C-alpha cells in the first residue's frame, strides 16, 4: 500500500495525496465501526465446541452406565442442546461475516475506486495548463503528445488504484484473521493462566529411607483461593516395612485425601512433614476407580511401564503368568487370545476383574508401600484374602482404605477418621497375631449372623401373618 500510495502521489500532487489520506481515514473509521468482535466470537466458538466434544467423549466413556439407567434420551437431549448452541453460534458468525464482507468489499472495491477516479480527475479538471503526467519535458505544443500523456497517466493511475484496492482488501482480511487469532489466543491464555495459577505439586520433604511417616500433618482439600477445607487435623503416624495400616471412617471423611497426601498429589496443610521412600519403588497407589490403559493385555499388567521397560526388567512371561494367577486372572491370556491382544479393556473386563488387574500391577511393580484405596470392593472375600496375603509375602507394606472390617486382619495399625468436623482421628494397634485371629473369628461369626438376618426377618413376617390370621 505504501508503494502504490507513493506512486499515486506523484500523479495526484499534494492536494490529491491529502485527499487520498482523507479517504483512508474515512474508510478506516467506517470499517472499524462495522467490524464485529471476531476475537470474542472465535473464543466463544472454541468454548462451545469444547463443551460439545467433551459431552460426546463422556457418553462414549460412560455408555454402559447410561444404558443401565436408560438415560439415552436424557443424554441425547444434553448433547443436542450443546450441538444447537454451537451450530447457532457458528451460523450467527457466518451471517455477521457475510454482512461484514459485503460492507468491506463495497467500501474497498467501490468506494476506494470511486474516490480514486475522482482524485485522478481533479488535476485534469482543475489544472488550467493541463500539463499533468509523470512524463515531463514533453513538447506541450504537440496535442497528440498531450493526449498520449494523459492516457498513459490515466491508465497507470487506474492500475495503481486497482492494486491499491487489492492491497487494502488483503490488509483487511489479514486484520480479520488477526482478530480471530487473538480470540483463540485469549482462550489459550485463559487455559494456561488457569494451569499456572494451580499450586505446584508438593515437594516431598524426604524421599529417603524405608519409612512412611506423617508428622503433625493437616489433610485438607487444597484451595486456590480462600481457606482450604481441613478434613483431618494434626495427623501423625509412622510405618516401617511390615507395619500394615488400615484407614477407615464413614464416607467422605477424608480417607482418600490421606492417600493423596501420602502419594504426594496433595500438599500437607499446616506445618506438618511427610516422609516416604522415593522413586518408583516408593509408594504405589491403586485408586478406587480401576484404570485400564489403551494397549495390549500385557500393557494392562505392566502399566505404567512400557514394553521396553518390561523387557529391560528381565521379567518373563511365565512370571507374568504367575502374577496373574496370584490375582486369580490366569485364564485371561488364553481367553483373550494372548498377551498382545488389543481390546477396549475398560469394557471387556468385569468390575471385579479390573480390580484384580489393579492388584496384579502391584505384584508386578513390588513397591515398598502400596496404598489400596477400596480397590478390592468388587472382589470376593476369599480372593481378596489371597491377594492380601500374596502382597504381604512379596514384602509390600499395605496401607488399605476400606470400610470392610474383614480386612482388618491383614493389618497391624488402624487409623479411624472420625469425620466430626474437627478433624479428629484415632490410631490404634490391631493386636498380636493371636488377637487378630480372635478378631477374625469374631468378624466371621458376625458376618455369618448378618447373612442370616434376611431369613429371620422373613420368618418374623410369616409368623406375624399367621398370628393375625388366627386372631381373626
Ligand atoms: N478435588 C476435590 N475438590 C473438592 N472437594 C473434594 C475433592 N476431593 C475430595 N473432596 C471432598 O473431600 C471430602 C473427602 O473426600 P475423600 O475422597 O477423601 O473421602 P473418603 O473418606 O475417601 O470417602 P469414600 O469412603 O466415599 O471414598 C469429600 O467431602 C469430598 O467431597
> What portion of residues belong to β-strands?
5-15%
The whole-number mean of residue pLDDT values reads 84
State Rg. Answer: 39 Å
CATH fold group of the largest domain: Rossmann fold
Our count of domains comes out at 2
Number of helices: 14
Task: Describe this protein's structure.
With 472 residues, this protein is an alpha/beta fold. The protein folds into two domains: 2-197, no CATH class; 212-430, 3-Layer(aba) Sandwich (Rossmann fold). The chain is built from 14 helices and eleven strands. The chain has helices spanning 2-34, 38-61, 63-68, 72-126, 143-197, 255-263, 297-302, 307-313, 317-326, 332-336, 345-348, 351-365, 381-393, 433-471, and strands spanning 212-221, 229-239, 245-248, 273-275, 283-286, 295-296, 342-343, 369-373, 397-401, 413-417, 425-429. The strands form three sheets. The protein has a six-stranded mixed sheet, sandwiched between helices. A three-stranded antiparallel sheet has the order 2-1-4, with helices on one face. A two-stranded antiparallel ribbon has the order 6-7. Strand 8, helix 13 (381-393) and strand 9 form a beta-alpha-beta unit. Helix 9 crosses helix 12. It is elongated and about 130 Å long. 25% of the residues are buried.
Amino acid at each position: 500500500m505504501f508503494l502504490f500510495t507513493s506512486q499515486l502521489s506523484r500523479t495526484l500532487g499534494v492536494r490529491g495525496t491529502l485527499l487520498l489520506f482523507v479517504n483512508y481515514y474515512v474508510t478506516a473509521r467506517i470499517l472499524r465501526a462495522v467490524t464485529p468482535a471476531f476475537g470474542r466470537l472465535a473464543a466463544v466458538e472454541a468454548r462451545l465446541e469444547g463443551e460439545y466434544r467433551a459431552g460426546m467423549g463422556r457418553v462414549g466413556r460412560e455408555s454402559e452406565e447410561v444404558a443401565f439407567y436408560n438415560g439415552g434420551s436424557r443424554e441425547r437431549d444434553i448433547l443436542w442442546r450443546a450441538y444447537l448452541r454451537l451450530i447457532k453460534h457458528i451460523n450467527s458468525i457466518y451471517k455477521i461475516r457475510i454482512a461484514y464482507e459485503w460492507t468491506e468489499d463495497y467500501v474497498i472495491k467501490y468506494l476506494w475506486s470511486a474516490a480514486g477516479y475522482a482524485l485522478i480527475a481533479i488535476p485534469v479538471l482543475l489544472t488550467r495548463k493541463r500539463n499533468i503526467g509523470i512524463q515531463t519535458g514533453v513538447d506541450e505544443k504537440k496535442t497528440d503528445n498531450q493526449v498520449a500523456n494523459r492516457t498513459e497517466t490515466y491508465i497507470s493511475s487506474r492500475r495503481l488504484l486497482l492494486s491499491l484496492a487489492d492491497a487494502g482488501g488483503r490488509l483487511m482480511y489479514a486484520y480479520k484473521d488477526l482478530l480471530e487469532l487473538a480470540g483463540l489466543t485469549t482462550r489459550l491464555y485463559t487455559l494456561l493462566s488457569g494451569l499456572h495459577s494451580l499450586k505446584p505439586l508438593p515437594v516431598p520433604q524426604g524421599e529417603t529411607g524405608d519409612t512412611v511417616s506423617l508428622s503433625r500433618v493437616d489433610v485438607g482439600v487444597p484451595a486456590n483461593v480462600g481457606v482450604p477445607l481441613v478434613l483431618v487435623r494434626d495427623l501423625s503416624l509412622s510405618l516401617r516395612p511390615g507395619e500394615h495400616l488400615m484407614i477407615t471412617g464413614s464416607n467422605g471423611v477424608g480417607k482418600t485425601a490421606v492417600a493423596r497426601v501420602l502419594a504426594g498429589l496433595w500438599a500437607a496443610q499446616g506445618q506438618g512433614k511427610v516422609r516416604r521412600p522415593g522413586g518408583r519403588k516408593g509408594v504405589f497407589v491403586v485408586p478406587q476407580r480401576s484404570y485400564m490403559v489403551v494397549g495390549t493385555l500385557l500393557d494392562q499388567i505392566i502399566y505404567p511401564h512400557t514394553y521396553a521397560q518390561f523387557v529391560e526388567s528381565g521379567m518373563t512371561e511365565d512370571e507374568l503368568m504367575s502374577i496373574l494367577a496370584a490375582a486369580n486372572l490366569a485364564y485371561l491370556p488364553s481367553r483373550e487370545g494372548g498377551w498382545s491382544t488389543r481390546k477396549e479393556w475398560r469394557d471387556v473386563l468385569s468390575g471385579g476383574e479390573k480390580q484384580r488387574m489393579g492388584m496384579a500391577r502391584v505384584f508386578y511393580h513390588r513397591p515398598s508401600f502400596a496404598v489400596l484405596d477400596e480397590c478390592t470392593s468388587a472382589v470376593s472375600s476369599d480372593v481378596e484374602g489371597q491377594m492380601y496375603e500374596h502382597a504381604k509375602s512379596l514384602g509390600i507394606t499395605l496401607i488399605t482404605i476400606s470400610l470392610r472390617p474383614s480386612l482388618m486382619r491383614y493389618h497391624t495399625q488402624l487409623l479411624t477418621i472420625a469425620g466430626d468436623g474437627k478433624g479428629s482421628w484415632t490410631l490404634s494397634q490391631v493386636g498380636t497375631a493371636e488377637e487378630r485371629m480372635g478378631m477374625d473369628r469374631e468378624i466371621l461369626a458376625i458376618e455369618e449372623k448378618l447373612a442370616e438376618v434376611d431369613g429371620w426377618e422373613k420368618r418374623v413376617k410369616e409368623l406375624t401373618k399367621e398370628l393375625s390370621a388366627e386372631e381373626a
